[in-house]
Amino acid sequence: MASSSSISVVCLLFFLSPLLHLNAVNANPNYKDALLKSILFFQGQRSGKLPSNQQISWRSSSGLSDGFLDHVDLTGGYYDAGDNVKFNFPMAFTTTMLSWSTLEYGKKMGPQLQEARAAIRWATDYLLKCARAKPGRLYVGVGDPNVDHKCWERPEDMDTARTLYSVSPSNPGSDVAAETAAALASASMVFRKVDPKYSKLLLATAKKVMAFAIQYRGAYSDSLGSAVCPFYCSYSGYKDELLWGASWLLRATNDPYYYNFLKTLGADDQPDLFSWDNKYAGAHRALVDNDKNFEQFKQEAESFMCKILPNSPYTTTQYTQGGLMYKLPQSNLQYVTAISFLLTTYGKYMKARKLTFNCGSLFVTPNSLIGLAKRQVDYILGENPIKMSYMVGFGQNFPKRIHHRGSSLPSLASHPQSIGCEGGFQPFFYSANPNPNILVGAIVGGPNQNDGFPDDRSDYSHSEPATYINAAMVGPLAYLAGLKTAH
């Protein structure tokens, strides 16, 4: 659901060296290469001052005065998709998913574990600033999306207002606050052993932000209106984020307060998707690990799987003729990657405990879930009717005209002159030429329901990458890369 304009990132000519061959995706995709690239992508989305070890070299520092309007430092973080806006709601979800992937599969990540931690920290350093800059206020976004989306310019050239958006007791945002708390709490577990001091700061801040989310109830869409809608409205309400945030704080602290709070939330919705907006299925899965009192969540997690499995009598999920899960036309791969994450983690949980369950007459084993997730991952990596890899820079045939400003406009190195707000439309946005900069690892919105993909820069619902599509793919790729049968 990244929005109609786009920017941010990419490429590393040296990463396209023989060292990381652009491998064929025929039989068995190279999951290790895909994992490396899925994490590398986040470097292309960086806002703020770029470090000396930045590998996506066509990007430069940007957004260096973010926060200036309120005399605070809000530099850093990520652009959500192809635009130059920092939307904290999807950014925090991205961070939680990267952290969960690392907690679940860190031992399978090999050299990518350090890169995953760096990707998480780029977000949490920024989210800490947002939570700690001013007492009683949580900053939740930088940049006016309605102005930004009228432009097609590099993040390095940004000349639009870097308007700041925040929530407070009088303008609450339980959804964005609880998601921020989930991000900080899950990340605190990632850094617990490698950087205990940072981990403690993350957790202490997560507790404060969660307390704010609980005490001052309200949807951030109601407080901020057109600054977040229709881009990242909280369509599912904020109860799912309260559940999700509390489940992560429970995991990070084992404090019975969060368990008791969860019980006060009452019966949950039973969705058949999982995304930056709707966290119920993810929270149910996250809670299964905590305690044997969570039989209710185990049942809800299994009920969710029964809605996803294609041959289940309770399925509510469409599949394309080529076998891709098809949920919604707008950026469908965000649902595919997020659901594949839940399929692999629940399959792994079942395997460890030798569990099975039934969807009516259908007998479900761990491999039923893992096999389905693998088919979705393989489809994304090129095992599909048109042999298109939906990960940029992976395989021989991948999207060349992604809806992304940084990728579609010449880099500062090749075009040092500034490109103004509207200067990028002609000749770049409307050009039929491939993007000059390859945003390695970016996963785009994906094919349509007929397995077709036009590779058209203006078709943002199919051709725009987004941080939360990639963040959810990291876990399944790490899992598959770690299986001995993967190669």
UniProtKB/TrEMBL annotation:
Q: Keywords of this protein's UniProt record, alphabetized?
A: Carbohydrate metabolism, Cellulose degradation, Glycosidase, Hydrolase, Polysaccharide degradation, Signal
Keyword Phosphoprotein part of the UniProt annotation: no
One molecular function GO term is: cellulase activity
The reaction(s) catalysed by this protein are: Endohydrolysis of (1->4)-beta-D-glucosidic linkages in cellulose, lichenin and cereal beta-D-glucans
Q: Where does the Glycoside hydrolase family domain lie?
A: 31-476
Enzymatic class: hydrolase
Gene3D superfamilies cross-referenced by the UniProt entry: 1.50.10.10
Q: What is its EC number?
A: 3.2.1.4
Is Cytoplasm among this UniProt entry's keywords?
A: no
Pfam families, alphabetized: Glyco_hydro_9
Catalytic site: H403, D455, E464
The leader peptide range reads 1-27
InterPro entries, per this entry? Answer: 6-hairpin_glycosidase_sf, 6hp_glycosidase-like_sf, Glyco_hydro_9, Glyco_hydro_9_Asp/Glu_AS, Glyco_hydro_9_His_AS
- UniProt GO BP: cellulose catabolic process
Q: Which SUPFAM superfamilies match?
A: Six-hairpin glycosidases (SSF48208)
Similarity annotation: Belongs to the glycosyl hydrolase 9 (cellulase E) family.
The name of this protein is: Endoglucanase
| Organism for this UniProt entry | Corchorus capsularis
Name the lineage: Eukaryota, Viridiplantae, Streptophyta, Embryophyta, Tracheophyta
